[in-house]
Structure of Ribosomal RNA large subunit methyltransferase H:
Amino acid sequence: MNITIIAVGKIKEKFYAQAIEEYVKRLGRYCNLKTIEIPDEKAPENLSNADRLGVIEKEGKKILSKIPLGPTIITMEIEGKQISSVELSKQIEEYTVNGQSHLCFIIGGSLGLSEEIKRLSQLKLSFSKMTFPHQLFRVMLLEQIYRGFRIFKGEPYHK
C-alpha cells in the first residue's frame, strides 16, 4: 500500500516532528508513506469573505498540483464523516482488497479546503467537530493510520 499525506503548513515544533518521525518509522512495515508539505498562505484574523476564499483557492491550487496520479483521495474535513478506529481499519482493508493500492490523505490549511479539492474526495473524514492545531492533527492522522493497519493485521495495539 502507498500512502501520501498532503498537508498545508510546516511542522515547526520539535516534539511534533519527533512524534511524526516515530509513526513514519512504525508505518514503514505496512506501507510506503510520503508526506508533502504545502506552504500556507498568510491569513490575518480579520479577512473579508472574498480574501478568505482567495486564500483557500490558492492553497487548493497548490494541493491540486501535488496530488499523484490515481490514488483514492481522502480529505480531512470538519464536515466529514466521523468513524471509529475499527471502521477506518475496515476501510483500509476494503481499499486493499479492491486493489486500491494508493491512498492520498489531504489536510487543508487553517481556513479549510477549496471546493475543488472537496469534489475530488472519495471519502471525507472528520476526527471531531473540534478544531486541532494542524501539527497535532498530522500526528493524530498518522497514529490512526498505524492503528488501522495493526487492527487490520490482527496485531495487538487496539484497546
